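Page 37, top half.
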Amino acid sequence: MGRKEEMVKKVHKLMYKPDQIRNIGIAAHIDHGKTTLSDNLIYGAGLMSGELAGKELAMDTLDQEQERGITILSANISMVYEYDDDNYLVNLIDTPGHVDFGGEVTRALRAVDGCIIVVGAVEGIMPQTETVVRQALDEKVKPVLFINKVDRLINELQISPEELQERLMGRIKEVNRLIKEYAPNKKLAKEWQVKVEDGSVAFGSALYNWGISLPYMKKTGIGFKDIYDYLTEENQKELAKKSPLYPIVLNMVVRHLPNPKQAQKYRIPEIWRGNPESEKGKAMMGCDEKSEAIMLVTNLGKDPHVGEVATARVYSGTVKAGQKVRLINTKADATIQQVAIYMGSGRKQLKDIPAGNIAALTGLGDAFSGETVAETEMEPFEKIKHYAEPVVTKSIEAKDPKRLPELIKALREVSKEDPTITVDINEETGEHLIAGMGELHLEVVERMIQEDKKVKVTTSKPIVVYRETIKKPSLEVKTKTPNRHNEFVMQAVPLEEEVAEAIHKEDIEQGKPKNSKELEQKLRELGMDKDEARKVWTVKEDNILINASRGVQYLNEVKELLVQSFEEAVNSGPLADEKISKVKLLIKDASLHEDAVHRGPAQVIPTIKKGIKATILTADPVMLEPKKKIFIDVPREYMGKVTSDIGSRRGEVLDMKQEGKLSKIQVKLPVEQTFGFSSDIRSLTQGKAIWSQEYSGYEVLPKSLQQEIIQEIRQRKGLKKEIPNPTELIS
């Protein structure tokens, strides 16, 4: 029997011992060593040669990942580790660090209970580090800390032993500051602080396979002074033999990260809005394998032999092949075909998987990431939050027009597998738009369509996604239906910034209010007028429709039509047909025909949609452009060239400081100006600059560029050159 087969037998046995299970993720900024650390842990479980650990990058299974040297998709593996004479099942998910693939991290964190945060010893806390810590804590996923690449502090920066300890303690303080800031409550902010003393912090080099923690120092007698000597003598191989990395990190995982029985008690009320005291609630919080099977799909992938494979966290019951289940959000029935665990690039089938584990399932054809799956109807799980939105778009077409149906199918599959990709399909013209987090995100998706889906495509240059908003309250605009029997009075008002921010954070749900009183309370706390807060009809993107009228007859009978019109209208503003943002639309008054025949969809919907555009045109409308924060580390002698390039791109320098021989520059750039930035900065600094980026939201486009950008977009979309006049839309 091979190592993997033997491991699968052990894994299945341990699945029924939840006290001995750890569901964990590894998360960090790009290039801080997550996948290299994963290699070490896989080696520690006996599934990889020690010679390959740190170099194999076993969890990077895509050709693109190996070629680009980055993780693109989350990868899962189940393995067994022996600790204190007991075996433990570790279900591990390695996640990407590049900001364009942050959605993979978000979805992985819903599946796990604990997380190893990896921080580079030299770079420290970087933008994506902060993001993943916030994401983990939002999901009530407990962190531990591994400070990687400690060898670089000594070999490259040549710091003293005293400076080494000072620098490492500084990294721990930075992480604890983030935990304190983002923890869901004060109790966890205190309890989840990472500490050297208790072993919830480890140090080492994943590339050279050695590590250290205080408990292990006491066991081996190897301290920081010894490590310093080994590194200055360039003897890391010997150090790896005496103080190997994998037991230090896996011991930390077993000792400090919760098992599913512990975690589900406090995580279920956080991610599920149902009654915790109900039968289903108690079963999930108790991780009860004998109750009804309830699970959440956290990711989707494609297997050429069996079709769609869903990654699912099982919260209660036991999942078996042939089991009939209900897809709660999709409102569809399904039959589970195969039940398996992940083993890196492959899967191993099992007869069943009980509560507290992560499963690979086939047969859930209509499922999507975030789908609730159960044997009977229930309240669904909370939606998985994504922390950024698509800001770069490409037009994509099939090279062979006959392959158009296959391209449409491939695009639908891609957007289902990765919810951070949005697809706009025009089946009549054959032109389709695909939007993602950045250039790299779209490049990767394009290649997946060509190589995995086998459809050759041509794409346009990247197009920036803009938004339209208003700067002041509009006039009250009257608009009549074509039959002249119905009249509506509307006003558009800028949405309160605090409310818009709450929508972006998903503290306020999209769609019609499920609990009007709860929403009213929340909106009033955020500064909205109490009468308006009480009469919200729907939330679409970061726009809100409010019934501000009084005593209008038959208004409730056309409410659904008004909601539908509003939700469609905010997808295309009057300036350039871009989405509308941060607008509060008030229905101030209406006069409606008593006969429902005269106030049907054909009369109401086009009237309201045109009326909304007319209303916005009287409110000083402007274009918003997306921006990114760029963090650049560059040798001091190149700083002038870098800042000059940033200035030429309409960049705003937010911060600049010196750290040793490096200049650390933080800037904000329009997304439109980031195209080509990578190659230019590499050329300007002879490849010596290191940079990273994060999404920074939308800001008003400079006045001098408003008309130019509007005309460019209108021309690209085939719209009339002239922006419509409000009276044209309501006459």
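Page 37, bottom half:
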Amino acid sequence: MCCRGIRPAYRIEKVLEKKKIENKKSSKNREKTRDDGRSLKKTAPAAAAMSFIIIAGARAMFTHSGRSAENSGSSKKEKAAEKAQQEQVSSGVREYAAWAVDHLRSGARDPIPSVLTAAVIALLLIVRAFIYGFRYFPYADDKIQYWYFRTFSSFGALQAKSGVLGSRPLAGLADYFVWSRMPFVLDVIMISVIFAVSAVLLRQALRRYFDLSALFPVLLTLMPLGIEGSYWLSASTRIIMGMLAAVLAEIMFIKWLDTSGVRGALCLAASFLLMTASYGFYEQTGLLASALLLVTAFLEGRRSGLRPLGFLLCLPSALAAFYIPTFFRVKGSPYSARIDDAVKGGTPLNDRLGRFMEQLDKVFFQEGGELMTRGFSRGAAEIAAGGLAGKMVLVVFLCLLLFAIAFLEKNGRTFVPGVHRHNRSRRRKVNGRTRTGSVMSWDLAAGLIVSAVLTAAPLTVFMLMSEPSLACRNALPCFAGIALFADLMVSWLSSLGGEKWRRLIPAVLAALLALYFMVCGISEMWCYKTVWEKDSRLAVPLAEALEEDGADKWAQGESSAVIGAVWDGRRISRHIESASSYSWSLGVMLRYTAKDKDLPNVVPLDSSELYDRETKASNDPRLFKYLYYYDEKAGTINRVHLELSPQSAVEDTTQYWYIMDSAGSRYGTMVISSDSGKVLEG
């Protein structure tokens, strides 16, 4: 009886042991398959992007070779062998393409879809930047930071004179030693690639908690309002590099949460250094890095114990980034003025907040809305005018490729056990079929909170400044929160229709918005091109006139001005100014035009308003020894002088001066009163 009672238990143990052995074998097979997949990942991007092209090319090649074989009158055996060979190669190509598609469907943990998405977005950014030819249109500070500094000064002399390390020191070092050593075109390409990679890396980091699609990187990188911060090098080399440092700080912080021991401590230290670096490039990106760590700690909750408290490194990082540059300040320089302007009195808080809200409305709604509406119509008109058809075909192809990657990629998060305990779903009947759709769960509510924090954090610096000065480029660091909010809402609404719509709708929207944003971007590129051309038409003859007059031999204290040089670049685009708007920008553009010749600054005077009460002391045309007149229609610069009109009475407060050249030709009459001055033509 005892033996009979033991046998069933013994058999059960044998069966369990056999199952364990089978499970071990299957796990080994899975590991082998996984290793094989890892070894093939090196070629996966090309396979995923080019599989369909390979198939089409292979079929065309096989069809052509088959026809040539028939025409040559080959034997039946040769034809059969050739046909078998074609079928074998064709089946191999199909298997290769199927394997590539499987990679795209393998989920958020597989890097292949993310690599392909980053590549497509980088190509879209590059095509947009060079839509009018393989060249860059320098604007405002570009010629100073990336040409003038290196041409006329060593870095030591630059620091001693202007204190370039006194604010955003990493950006100043990179300007002098990295970006200015390369052509403008190469700078734009590198910034575009870094921006695309940063957007996709940020999506991967946030996928730890949220189900994000291709819509997130499209909104983050291609929105027209962000072009000033991603194309204009004087802004992009700071903002994009700062965003890259912020994203890498977030990734290192996540690794700290999942890694123990010395490696974990190194990850935390790297996160601290990268966050400090983000402040060293741009204040807003430093605040974005701090916000990312804060929301990560919020989303982790108790899962990682006390490790999420590592986000408290934000405070010493911000203090280090603020106080270290103060040791390199040079009093009176514009770099020191940035520090003086921060958290130091100024206008009352209520006035500051009022101005900030006005600027916020102007940038995000007025200028942003104009770029999305007028920009699209102007971009469409540029395409219809001709000359851009070939590039638009490439843009459409890239948008379709983005749709294919987004649709084939299996949506999902890089799942971490224990983080999501609040996911809920509901079953409902639609047309007699039971479907599962997500409800307004904790995940969505947390996502809305996180998106609000990421949007608001980069803007807080303007609430602390004594004089807020919010511009279009300052909107770019906020796009991470805006893109997260839009992606979450679209994913949630599309998931109500089932898994098919949950994959299809975000993919379609990502492709359509990418195409729409690219058309708007063409309008912005046209604006930069037009402003550059107008400035060049002024700078070339003016530089020649200065050289002819021996401007390099002028005595100290002698100055010059040019009447009619100022034209309003904002008539083309609300946020783009002409180089003639300021004396410093016009002076540097003249030096850039003359290349190696260090020409003096020339004060630009607008024909409509030569000066007002505030600028009378510096802009009065009678104060300048050398006076020029710019004829915009003819594109010429003429040396002129002033002759007092006979109708002017000495006792009157208003005087009339004729603008004359050496040949006696009159270009207009200058009306100068005690409060203002202007030019009357004729």
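Margin note: Strands lie at 425-430, 433-438, 560-563, 603-605, 626-631, 636-644, 655-661, 666-672, 677-681.
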